[in-house]
Amino acid sequence: MKRISLVILPFVLYITGLLAYYFGKINGYQFIIFIIVGLGISIFGFFLYRNDKKLKAAFLAIFYILALLTIFESRLIDYEKYTYFLISYNEPFEIVEGSGINVLAVEVIETPYITDLGYLIHTVEFSTNKEVLDAEIVTNRIRYRSKNEEVLSYVRPAEKHFETMKENVITYLSESSFAINRFLEREDIEGDSAGLATVLSALIEKGEVNNKVPIAVTGAIDSKGNVKEIGSIKAKTLIAEQSGFPHILLPVENEEEAKKVKNDEQLNINIIAVASIENAVANVKKLNVRETGK
Predict the structure, then answer these.
(1) Which end of the chain is less congested by CB atoms within 10 angstroms, N or C?
(2) Secondary structure of 54-90 in the HEC alphabet?
(3) How confident is the model at residue 157 (pLDDT cuts 50, 70, 90)?
(4) Which residues, 6 or more positions from 180, have their beta carbon under 8 angstroms from its beta carbon?
(5) Phi, psi (deg, nearest 5) at residue 24
(6) Cα(71)–Cα(55) distance, rounded to whole angstroms?
(7) What gap in Å lies between CA 43 and CA 25, rounded to an integer?
């Protein structure tokens, strides 16, 4: 029984450390210590039972597995430095001039080491001359996911959300235009939250939809035209309000959060939540009939 306990103890330590880290009970350094202790136990077991071929082989296998896990997880140490993601203002813009469809974009600033949020915001605003609209704390879950994505990128190409958006837009539209193609070839934009705005702009440019109402738009899409959830909704809602847009078009999945922002910040903007491009088009048409009579 003692032998079995000693064999499984290194794995128990690893799993315990991983869960404690993932749920924010320990930091990355402490998690690595859990694994190193497991390595020590496997070495101890190897020498303790060196005359037992099966146990000796078992402890040697455990050592190699934990050594690989140590290499895999040690990358977390570098992610310990990140404390907050600060989200600042970016000017909304039209993909198709005169379309009335305005893309909401934000700048995400990764900040290392500083834990005083007030000081951090002041420093960033002073150095960039941009207002910080929201701050997201970097949790261990975010660190662990980011680390896994980085490590996996060494063996397979990392997913580029803008490229995914580009593929979905092209698939949905079947044919594009110069303005849309020019936007999709830009290299200074990340993320997929401009998908809905891109498709609406294309439909307006082709004359399939008429729009004379200025609308702030954010939302990812899939190839079938379903509108998907996006991030940084607080900052984007604030940008739409500060930029003077009467309406913001966003995914249904973000509706509750946007309404909370509107209530908490006492905003005047009209929130329109949509689940598909067809739904978005219908709402654009309703706004034009109501506000322009066309």
Answers:
(1) N
(2) HHHHHHHHHHHHHHHHHHHHHCHHHHCCEEEEEEEEC
(3) low
(4) 95, 96, 169, 173, 198, 201, 202, 205
(5) 80, 20
(6) 24
(7) 27
Which two tokens mark 292? 């322009």
Report d(CA 77, CA 228) in Å as an integer: 33
Residue 39 has pLDDT above 80, yes or no: yes
The DSSP symbol for 280 reads H
Tell me the two tokens of residue 40. 């020590």
Q: How confident is the model at residue 129 (pLDDT cuts 50, 70, 90)?
A: confident
Contacts with 188 (C-beta within 8 Å, 6 or more apart), sequence order: none
Phi, psi of 130 (to 5 degrees): -125, 140
Which one has a higher pLDDT value, 2 or 254?
Answer: 254
Count the helix, strand and coil residues of the chain and give each as a percent rounded to the nearest 5: 55, 15, 30
| Three-state secondary-structure class, residue 119 | helix
Q: Residue 217 pairs with which residues in a beta bridge?
A: 103, 249
How many CA atoms does the CB half-sphere of 83 hold within 13 Å? 11
Architecture of the 82-292 domain: 2-Layer Sandwich (3.30)
The two beta strands, 227-228 and 106-112, are unpaired
User: What residue spans in the chain does CATH classification 3.30.230.10 cover?
Assistant: 82-292
Q: How far apart are CA 85 and CA 135, in angstroms?
A: 6
The model's pLDDT over 91-104, given as tens digits with 9 standing for 90+, comes to: 999 998 899 999 99
Task: Give CB contacts under 8 A, 24+ apart, made by 3-11.
Answer: 3/49, 3/55, 6/41, 6/45, 6/48, 7/45, 7/55, 7/58, 7/59, 7/62, 9/38, 9/41, 10/38, 10/39, 10/41, 10/42, 10/62, 10/66, 11/38, 11/62
Cβ-contact 34, 14 below 8 angstroms: yes
